[in-house]
Amino acid sequence: MKRSAFTIIELVMVIVVLGILAALALPRLDRDIRQEAADTILSNIRYTQHLALMDNKQMFNDEDWQQRYWKIMFGTCTGSDKFFMIGSDDDMDGGSSGYFEKDESAIDPTNGKPMFWVNGNDCSNGSDGTVSNQIFITKKFGITSFTFSGGCADIQYIGFDHLGRPHVGFANSSTPDQSSYMYDDCNIAFNFSNASIDPLTITINKETGHAFIVGQENS
Length: 219
Description:
Layout: H1 8-29, H2 33-54, E1 70-76, E2 82-87, H3 137-141, E3 143-150, E4 157-160, E5 166-167, E6 186-192, E7 200-204, E8 211-213
């Protein structure tokens, strides 16, 4: 009886085609650290603004209420590693630093864990799984520094009101006069430990709070 089967030539051709496809696909599998970092930080800035839009922090019976704006803060761990966290100083006791407690932090929608860390603490402790690991941007992406300029110069946090408008310097606000409203675009620049990776800048527009990656304005 005759049995149908592939010939050696057909098998060789299939292997050659698979090899070509693999050669084309492998470069796409390389990790783009810069883009990953940009997308992660940008999405969390937008997440902060979303929380502000969904959760109006205004309190007419308390003159300190602006301290409650949802904010994204950037900080430094022991050993200079960098991180960010998202939260709201709900009880308004954070002082001029805008600090908030763990139970006032946002929950990472991707893993259900608090987006919180303490400035100056050892970031390696975050590996115990009690907080979201995406906030540790040095360990995750190799980011070694960040610089705030423009409307947020010298301030390491950005907050948003119930209309999504950006605010700065509201951590010790004692009167609801909207003086923390950001009147110039904020630029946050990030540098990487790998010198071959270009610095990254994210801009947050005044008035609207629209955030985007510089060089990728449609991001």
